[in-house]
Specification:
By secondary structure, the protein is mainly alpha-helical. 83% of the residues lie in helices and 0% in strands. The longest helix is centred in the first third of the chain and has 45 residues.
């Protein structure tokens, strides 16, 4: 089984960096805020201790320093305002870009790599994201197992079964991409506790639907094995009916609309 950290290491070597926690703009906003506080503190102190400062430094020096402090205060306030606006815009644009990346992921390998990334970035969702990672691994193994079964058994249903399982894998990939989108939006620095709970509930529902679908695939493969054994003893009518029924169930699950 491929471990998420190994997938992430390969993903990062291809040039996808982890999101920086402290951007340059955030540091700029922080510096502006500190400069405002320092300027305000000097102005307040010079006002309170004006007489002593005049005696020790001279009135021209004190007045000049207060003018400089007021200039710093004004410039810093403007810088803080525009820096904050750009920071919030950048955060919103960042999520939009991340969501677009998640929606455009192509195939299980890319999706697993993105899951490994968000497991690092959303530790509060790591268990759920690990489950989604494992589900992708599981359906991939079942598709490989089905291929092996049809290579070694003289049974029917190969075309219908493989089409159903391939469709299941694509559907699970779509659901996992929705899970990734939920993880992106579940930013602890931007959402409140209620929104976190809502995202976690939506992720749980998607995982549960995946679990039921994968379990149905497992039942289908088990029935195919039993059908092959039944043909050898001329008793396979029940398995035949079960296989048809399970393929229909999978097709119905795949036909359902995925709701965010």
């Amino acid at each position: 089984m491929t471990h998420p950290s190994a997938v992430l290491d390969g993903y990062l070597r291809k040039g996808k960096p982890l999101k920086k926690k402290l951007s340059n703009r955030f540091l700029f906003v922080l510096a502006s805020l500190l400069l405002i506080l320092s300027s305000f503190a000097f102005i307040a102190t010079s006002g309170i201790s004006r007489t002593n400062l005049i005696i020790t430094r001279g009135i021209h020096f004190v007045d000049a320093m207060r003018i400089v402090a007021w200039c710093f205060l004004s410039v810093s306030a403007v810088a803080l305002l525009f820096g904050s606006i750009r920071l919030f815009r950048r955060a919103a644009a960042g999520h939009a870009a991340e969501l677009e990346t998640a929606r455009n992921l192509n195939g299980p390998d890319e999706i697993r790599a993105e899951l490994a990334h968000w497991m690092k970035d959303r530790p509060q969702l790591s268990t759920s994201l690990q489950t989604a990672f494992d589900q992708l691994q599981s359906i991939g193994r079942k598709r490989s197992r089905a291929t092996s079964l049809f290579a070694t058994m003289l049974v029917g249903f190969e075309r219908q079964t493989m089409m159903a399982i391939d469709s299941v894998e694509r559907t699970i990939c779509k659901r996992v991409k929705l899970i990734i989108c939920r993880a992106i939006l579940c930013d602890p620095e931007e959402v409140n506790a209620e929104e976190v709970v809502n995202h976690q509930a939506a992720i749980h529902n998607l995982l549960e639907t995946n679990r039921k679908t994968i379990a149905t695939c497992e039942d289908l493969l088990a029935q195919i094995v039993e059908h092959n054994e039944g043909e050898q003893r001329d008793s396979h009518v029940e398995e035949f009916a079960n296989i048809i029924s399970l393929i229909d169930v999978l097709n119905d699950l795949n036909a359902q609309n995925i709701k965010n």
